[in-house]
Amino acid sequence: MTENSAIRTIPRKSLHEELVDRLQMLIITGELQPGSKVPEKDLCAQFGVSRTPMREALKVVASDGLVRLEPNRGAWVAPLTISEVEEVFPILGVLEALSGELACQNITDDEIEAVRALHAQMIKSYEARDLEAYFSVNQKIHRAILKAARNDTLTASCQALSLRMQRARYLANMSDERWAAAVEEHEQIMDYLARRDGKNLARTLLAHMRGKQASVIKWLKSQGGQV
Amino acid sequence: MTENSAIRTIPRKSLHEELVDRLQMLIITGELQPGSKVPEKDLCAQFGVSRTPMREALKVVASDGLVRLEPNRGAWVAPLTISEVEEVFPILGVLEALSGELACQNITDDEIEAVRALHAQMIKSYEARDLEAYFSVNQKIHRAILKAARNDTLTASCQALSLRMQRARYLANMSDERWAAAVEEHEQIMDYLARRDGKNLARTLLAHMRGKQASVIKWLKSQGGQV
DNA sequence: AACTGTAATTTTGAATTCATAATTTAGTCA
DNA sequence: TGACTAAATTATGAATTCAAAATTACAGTT
């Protein structure tokens, strides 16, 4: 039993960094429910660590906005609200637009081909209506563009903000129309990237983000405006 | 001895939050030298706290990029490099541009008048060649615009990135020409804001940031490319 | 004097302990 | 029964302790 359940010590990188990743994942996937209390003690037990590194990790996750610390009352999973979505998506929009412009200045032919391959894969996932696979490849494409932008700070900023929105993407289903529109937008994105047309790529990425925002908000409203 | 030197306990807000602020300040002002080791033990003694909250604060400051944690080797003050400046300023540029657009949509007449007052104060500081005062008011203006944008996430993002650049602004002197140009840009900024001309305000803020970037890089190069 | 290996010391990462604040439970009285 | 108070319990924030890692000091060799 090399691979078993429950308690397992965590090897690679510093304990608190690993815990930051795990906490983020628990929150994004909804295993830790929005608005609920973060069960510090239980999580310590689950991961087999003491409170010290767990609390260090919670401070970091809180500074990214995924949890909220209440003095003497512990940590709470920040709910995803409409107003938060309305705040974050416009920021992500301009950041992704910037990443598009920079990518066009720096991307290599090989990288373009790699993105093209991902794009083809994504289309397949769309045609198979495999949302899971679609999301996964979609993220890879956006990450590839970010990587080509050659700006680690931009990458970090985008990822921190994306995390907060990914909860919605995990839980929300896109409408058929929105999905079709998103795919269409991605065709354009691929096209402008291949031509290294920074201005148009930026414009399209911004519009793409606006589409996502509308879609997420629509879903959030159907959920009663939160989570 | 209610008020004495050295060791003094810290009251308001949680200890680690207060320590985050203090650490940031020590780094921005250069009291903690770029590239040097963060003297954890000494700082604990200086602030009269134990290592636990200090280390929690260091983790948060590290996630903002002001210090770098090396496993088993402690925390080091991140040096300010040319490539970092070249990464951060373009991001700040698009974020401030966005803040300008949003501000124009949301700012009240009273707020415009408040900014106008700050602007006048800044001009006075310029005419008196009081750099200290100039910087201080300048920051207030940018913060007022951010506030008018009604987007707390944007405010937080800008401030986190600004912090990393402020070390340069603290230490660097602007050239006379750059200073004059900056003031001229601020005249335009004031003008477009008063007219609520979002597009032009965004464009001007972006250009303003490019000017700052060039100025900081010029100074950094004169310092041997770092710090 | 420079180099290498080893012991002593210091620093780091994480667990544990401890004081205090918050919450829950139990009990009292109307 | 229900509202209120007080005791007990639990959770939190921070200091302390402890094991492991890194750094420094030092002796012995060339």
Which chains share the greatest interface? A-B, 31 and 31 residues
Low-pLDDT sequence parts of chain A: 1-11
Distance between the termini of chain A: 38 Å
Report the radius of gyration of chain A as a whole number of Å.
Answer: 19 Å
Helix content of chain A: over 70%
How many distinct helices of chain A? Answer: 9
Strand content of chain A: under 5%
Largest sheet of chain A: 2 strands, antiparallel
Look at the helices and sheets of chain A and give the structural class.
Answer: mainly alpha
Lateral arrangement of strands in the main beta sheet of chain A: 1-2
Average pLDDT of chain A, rounded to a whole number, is 92
How do the helices and strands follow one another from N- to C-terminus of chain A?
A: HHHEEHHHHHH
**Oligomeric state as shown:** homodimer
Shape of chain A: globular
Number of strands of chain A: 2
How do the helices and strands line up, and which of them pair or pack?
The structure is a homodimer of 227-residue chains.
Chain A: H1 15-28, H2 40-47, H3 51-63, E1 67-70, E2 74-77, H4 82-106, H5 109-127, H6 131-148, H7 152-171, H8 176-195, H9 198-222
Antiparallel strand pairs in A: 1-2
Helix pairs in contact in A: 1-3, 4-6, 4-7, 4-9, 5-6, 5-8, 6-7, 8-9
The first copy, chain A, binds a DNA duplex (30 and 30 nucleotides) through helix 3.
